[in-house]
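User: Study the chain.
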Amino acid sequence: MFHPTIPNYKQAKFPGVVVFSEIYQVTGPVARFARQIASQGYIVAAPSSYHEFTGPEPLAYDGPGTDAGNAWKIEKAVSAYDEDATLSVSHLLSLPTCNGRIGATGMCLGGHLAYRCALDARVSAAVCYFATDIHSRTLGKGKNDDSLERCGDIKGELCMIFGKMDTHVPPEGRDLIRKRLHEEKVNFSWYEPAWAQHAFIRDELSKGRYDAALSGVCFEMLKELFNRTLRSDLGPRDGGDIEVEDVC
């Protein structure tokens, strides 16, 4: 848990955000990402996705860590991932300092889990960084998830971010996700930075993909979406048509 504080305002209320980690659990980069969000005035819960198999300690960014993370990713049932998300949202809402509005975000595996978290009607917005396995429907035990089929259940707003050079989610996979979101009339934004590879927001340089400039741009997108949807009381979305002006 990462909780913001404002001096002399002990009863201040904040929105909640669930941060889902990559396959390495809550590593230093994930914890720093969570603290960044908390410093903007959000209560952050960062669950350990592999608690059925190991402790909360992060896996190393090396061969054995990668192998363990990838193995557990498909040993765990999709229903168990969903239970983690449900419990995380419920915990945030139970806090007396939570204002009752919830967002979700995550990277890699966590991007997919943030997307699935948005299937919960209590979640108003989700920012999904390079979400893996949605296009291939291969998350969890049996490698047969229903995330893409259920996208019409998402009532909040999505922001989907993929590097254009991400080999984990190839162009045809990204096109499939975007097409499906359009077909189901999901309210979403889409961003594909031209030179970004997979995991470009991970501020750990052993794999050489971190891009601080692009990460900053994407964090501003997260702030805009969460500030608009979690801090403001917008009321229910009516889903009506918006008049679009076809003029310069």
About this structure: The mean pLDDT is 95. The beta strands are 14-20, 43-45, 98-107, 123-129, 157-161, 187-191. Residues 212-231 form the longest helix (20 residues). The chain has one domain: 14-231.
